[in-house]
Amino acid sequence: MDKRTVASAHERIDIVEKDVVALSTQASIQFKEVFIRIKRLEAILIGTAGFIIALLLAVLTKMG
Q1: What's the distance, CA 63 to chain centroid?
Q2: What CA–CA distance (Å, rounded) separates 17 from 24?
Q3: Beta-strand (E) ranges in 1-64?
Q4: What does residue 23 show for φ and ψ, rounded to 5 degrees?
Q5: DSSP letter at 25?
């Protein structure tokens, strides 16, 4: 039978704590990459919308 002591519990907690820190760091890096990609897509969409609006205004001014 396994004798569980306070010292062995602290050792297991230290191991789990290291794993949690590693996972937290990895998640932070992945979220940062996702936010960068979203910002890039947003800039492309805003630029595209601006171009379309300018093109439509140019067509409307030539018609009138």
Answers
A1: 45
A2: 10
A3: none
A4: -65, -40
A5: H
